[in-house]
From TrEMBL:
It is a multi-pass membrane protein. Pfam families: HTH_3, MamF_MmsF. The keyword Transmembrane helix applies. This is HTH cro/C1-type domain-containing protein. GO terms for molecular function: DNA binding. SMART domains: HTH_XRE (SM00530). CDD domains: HTH_XRE. It comes from Chryseobacterium angstadtii. Residues 4-57 form the HTH cro/C1-type domain. It is found in: Membrane. SUPFAM superfamilies: lambda repressor-like DNA-binding domains.
Length: 178
């Protein structure tokens, strides 16, 4: 039985009444009650009309159980590969998909590595130009690479400690690339 159907019937609403209350077409409500998952604006408006949380209308709610040890392993799997930027993204991504730990936190971890790698590459390749502009005699490229690695290690370890203690990441993004 569809969650939408259950909540609609509990409130003794017809599909037409729910349509008028939510602004969603009767046909869309019929499709959702037949098994289609509501998304985005439709989910938001139906939840608002029924006065329930959006997750309560989903037929397969998000699994609340989280394997924090596996998430910590996925996070720490970037450490051995901080010198080889594509691998510090690829290894956690592969573990994430093969272990089917595809949740917001793991996506955030991989996205954080992607963003950090992009920033590091841009700064790394712009450092020779900074050398010339400021007439610096020593190779700035090596210093930039070392600092990028140290900061990446710091981010990974800080997040691992935070996941272990609080069950959430300390450094995260408000978006993800995945």
């Amino acid at each position: 039985m569809s969650q939408l159907l259950k909540y609609r019937e509990n409130l003794n609403l017809t599909q037409e009444e729910l349509s008028a209350k939510s602004g969603i077409s009767v046909r869309t409500i019929q499709r959702i009650e037949a098994g289609t998952e509501p998304k985005g604006y439709t989910l938001k408006m139906l939840a608002k009309a029924l006065n329930v949380k959006e997750t309560e209308l989903l037929n397969n709610p998000v699994n609340e159980t989280v394997n924090y040890q596996l998430i910590k392993l996925i996070n720490l799997s970037s450490l051995p590969f901080i010198i080889f930027p594509p691998m510090n993204i690829l290894v956690p991504l592969l573990i994430m998909y093969f272990k089917k730990e595809n949740n917001l936190m793991t996506k955030q971890m991989v996205s954080l590595q992607i963003l950090w790698t992009l920033i590091s590459v841009i700064v790394f390749f712009s450092s020779p130009f900074l050398n010339r502009i400021f007439s610096i005699d020593f190779p700035l490229v090596l210093i930039v690479a070392a600092i990028a690695c140290i900061i990446n290690i710091y981010i990974i370890i800080l997040n691992a400690i935070s996941i272990d203690r609080k069950g959430k990441m300390r450094i995260f993004l408000n978006f993800n690339f995945l």
